[in-house]
Amino acid sequence: MDVVYRDARFSVNARMIAYDGPVHELFHMQTKAKPRVALHLLKLVDTANRRNITVKTSVQELHRQIYEKGLTPSITKLNKVKEVQVEGTALLTEKGGFATALTGRETAFLQMLLQGKRGEISISLPYPDSDGAEKTIQRRISFFVKGLSKKVKTSFVDGRFHFNVDMKLRVSISERIFPFDMDEDYKKMGTVLEKEIQSEYQDLLLKCQKLKIDPFGFGLHARAYEYDEWKKVQNEWTQAFSQAKVNIVTHVDIKGNGNIK
Length: 261
Fold this sequence. Notes:
Blueprint: H1 2-6, E1 17-19, H2 24-27, H3 37-50, H4 59-67, E2 74-80, E3 84-92, E4 98-102, H5 104-115, E5 122-126, E6 140-157, E7 160-176, H6 182-211, H7 218-225, H8 227-233, H9 237-242, E8 245-256
Parallel strand pairs: 1-2, 7-8
Antiparallel strand pairs: 2-3, 3-4, 5-6, 6-7
């Protein structure tokens, strides 16, 4: 990376990716129906980013993320089975080492918290069964996020940072593979989605806090609103974030349920 940053012939807009396998497989990849490898990978990453199943981190952006004390870096993760495909997002430590990987669905939640509504966001979640009976077909519901707004309230109480995130989502149901009266019980469906989204966020936050990484950028909020306390921990922010209290509350407003019943 030192060469990339020093040599002006390198493009600072080049995409940064983590590849799970021998790198020579990418360099010598032969594709009959696709353009040359460099263009194919570029299009692959950009398209996946527009669908919010991975991040898009350029060389310049990675440099900023590594030297920014308020968050930890994240880059695209690829793998290859029969063809090269986007696997999700690789989360890095503050020093640039590999920490863990996020699936495409987890990346969608990360993207919503990072930058709000950009591009297409499609999420599929399990729908809890009230009777708890075993079913051949798992009950799931899929939806598109049509709009999103969020507010983050930052405070420092009892020796640790507190972040209260209030998210409002406008969604449109795209698939429901179980019977449900949306005309009468759409508010109940909204409540179920709120609980499932909050549960997903809590699992993702706990995963990152255990690994002492902050891909969400909560350190930026700490610096902006609790600067005196931030100064004390700015060089050990990931340790401080691992002890922080993060509470995410979601409000789901269902705006669409398809064209036919």
